[in-house]
Amino acid sequence: MSSFSGALKELLTLTQMLVLLLVSGAQWSHAQASPQLPLHTSGYKIVDAKKSPVQLKSVNWYGFDEKEYVPGGLDHAPLATIVGLIKRMGFNSVRLPWANETLEKNPVVADYAIKANPQLRGKHAMEVMDIVIDALAKAQIMVILDNHVSRADWCCKDDDGNGLWYSKEYPESAWLADWKTIARRYRNQPWVVGVDLRNELRSGAVWGGDNKKLDWHAAATRGGNAVLSVSPKLLVMIEGPQYSTDFRGAAHLPVFLDVPNRAVYSPHAYSFGAQTQNYAELQKAFDERAGFLLQTTPAIPLWIGEFGTCQTLTGCGSDPNGEWIRGFVRYVKEHPELGWSYWPLNGTQSSGYSRTYDAPETFGLLTTDYQHIAAPKLLELFRTIGLQPQE
Known about the structure:
Layout: H1 2-33, E1 40-42, E2 45-47, E3 57-60, H2 79-89, E4 93-99, H3 100-105, H4 125-138, E5 142-149, H5 172-185, E6 192-196, H6 216-230, E7 235-238, H7 241-244, E8 263-265, E9 268-270, H8 279-289, E10 303-308, H9 323-333, E11 339-342, H10 376-382
Parallel strand pairs: 3-4, 3-11, 4-5, 5-6, 6-7, 7-8, 9-10, 10-11
Antiparallel strand pairs: 1-2
Helix pairs in contact: 5-6
């Protein structure tokens, strides 16, 4: 019995060692899954500090750009619950829209907009932004700050007063100063990895040209350099004219920033901007307006800052059978160097033009109570382009 007991102990010891190795391996694997920050660009790819490729698989969480001045859902669910769902769905980053009005006026947030988070009561909008970004960072979710509009409101129309990077109320000098302010505010937060200089340029904006008031290429260069002068480690996402659907000007007039390996082009895509749902024609149309940038010099990565559809994949006016979204996801799959960001996370609408506070957000990934996933078919589709949900 003594020899058997000794053998049993030895077997148990070996088993314990094996379990320990397996656990350690799992922990190492999990640690490796997180990028080594900061990020920069290398050719057509975004890479981390160890030069490992990083695909930004993002979701838009709007609200700091809206009339409530806080992200949607804080009135329905604890912040930790919403962040946990983002992590569980498998997103590694969040595009967080904000308005110049939110930063400059920094109002105290209305109680109704944060009623599920009493710890936020009485706080100003930017204090809430600090807390939201801190929660995302603790979950190891990267953040891209997006200057969505000047005046807080729902976007977008040609004549909404938010189509350029400036307005009468918010001149370019304020836009540049605000970017410096927000870049300085988060320059010691490593999980804030990028800035999206301005959302969906329209209202006559062009890439280049003789009219300085409409030349977005020159303004984006000034804006990017302003950000990098304060926080040189950030990626700088640059959208294009015509609601960020047309980058043809960049073929002969690329953006060069003072800090190299920071520029990223960010086209948008929706079914209502498409002329067809046939895949070959969809591919051709996107390649002509933005996809061709993956073949140009200098090599600059692409991150699709917005694309979206009805959460059900059916019954969507401009994409009634979900053919466009399936085709677009196929395009992304065939170009694995592309990063992307789905619009939106939100389960409900914020107040704004043509919007009704707390009405269902039909494109949203979350339910109206922000407690559950409302679009499982979409998430299953996104598995084909790298999304890895956590069980």
